[in-house]
Amino acid sequence: MPPRGPRPGGGGPRKPTGRPTGSGKAPRFAGSTKPSQPTALPDRKVARPAVPVDVHDPDGVRLQKLLAAAGIGSRRACENLIAAGRVEVDGHVVTELGVRIDPLRQSVHVDGERVQLDESRVYLAFNKPLGVVSTMSDELGRPSISDFLGARQDRLFHVGRLDADTEGLLLLTNDGDLAHRLQHPAYGVLKTYLAQVPGPVARDLGKRLRAGIELDDGPVAVDSFKLVDSAPGRALVEVVLHEGRKHVVRRMLAAVGHPVEYLVRTDVGPIRLGDLKVGKTRRLTREEVGKLYTAAGL
């Protein structure tokens, strides 16, 4: 599905800005990072003045009711947000309390962060085990993603792929627009990997990888590289990039003399693997979904 254009006043696709930040100590040669905690919406006003554009849908649902149902706050608190000019509908500031909208057709932002009002949308984090292929079904009978989802009726997309020998974070959703943007390199959504490789690692390796490595299908460069831990004969490195080519992390590290022995993806944009157990899924929080939309420029 082709990406939609930027919403009015929102700007174009986001560009890579470096590695994501997070908390918690890095694991030694395996494991996962600590999950980030959802944060409340900041108590601030949107700087832009109200724009006299009619976004009212007489057959729709009251805006404050939808915001309250989405977990933004109580009905009264949502009314205060609207009156303060902190809510946008289709890119325009709304301050009238009587506005009705279509939650399936119109987009809503609070303090610049997208709020998903469509209750049919599903957003899951999945910790893919080793040996599982990144498909919903496999004609060869190999373990696939659907084997871990139970009897779900939703038609879910997996965001990007992880090869069978790589474990870690996959996002699953039925939101096709978001899935497309998250995995398309043009939108610069960063993915973070931990790789165990033979050591020692040269001090200038990060500089070389940031400058770019030539592969068979063209050059590739990391957005960030860090030596996390080392021991005699091996090292744990963190690689952050927005590329999505097949086996790109393995091929890149092999090209510089450090073939991957173990690989796990820990982050997709603002979403962290955290302590999610292998083979398990969890629903993303409202705050996490909003941050994904922001990362994808929606």
UniProtKB/TrEMBL annotation:
UniProt GO BP: enzyme-directed rRNA pseudouridine synthesis
GO molecular function, one term: rRNA pseudouridine synthase activity
Gene3D superfamilies, per database record: Pseudouridine synthase, RNA-binding S4 domain
Cited InterPro entries: PsdUridine_synth_cat_dom_sf, PsdUridine_synth_RsuA/RluA, PsdUridine_synth_RsuA/RluB/E/F, PsdUridine_synth_RsuA/RluB_CS, RsuA_PseudoU_synthase, S4_RNA-bd, S4_RNA-bd_sf
Keywords, ordered alphabetically: Isomerase, RNA-binding
Keyword Isomerase: yes
CDD domains: PseudoU_synth_RsuA_like, S4
Reactions mediated catalytically: a uridine in RNA = a pseudouridine in RNA
Pfam families from the UniProt entry: PseudoU_synth_2, S4
PANTHER family in the record: PSEUDOURIDINE SYNTHASE FAMILY PROTEIN-RELATED, RNA-BINDING S4 DOMAIN-CONTAINING PROTEIN
Descriptive protein name: Pseudouridine synthase
Upper lineage: Bacteria, Bacillati, Actinomycetota, Actinomycetes, Micrococcales
